[in-house]
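Sequence only, no structure available. Ideas?
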Amino acid sequence: MSEGEPIHIDITGELDLHTFQPREVGDLLEDYLMECHKRGILSVRVIHGKGTGTLRTGVHEKLAKMHLVDSITWPASAATGGWGATWVRLKA
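Reply:
I predicted one. Tokens follow.
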């Protein structure tokens, strides 16, 4: 896949960002959550990994600015990713 080519991501209520750089996440996160909302998926698990926290911080900053987000839960439960994932609740 060449740079600039669209990436197909299935809309499942789970967004795994492990393969993305922090600078790539902004539009992707917003577009994905908007598509989830359109499909009636109001609870979304965003997997950002534990790492240094750079990706998580960027995700949380973006989520805080999105009108579509009702709330976030971080860390996720141990069974759903713990410190490496955030649950996002979208407004109905």
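DSSP finds two helices and four strands in the chain.
Hope that gets you unstuck.
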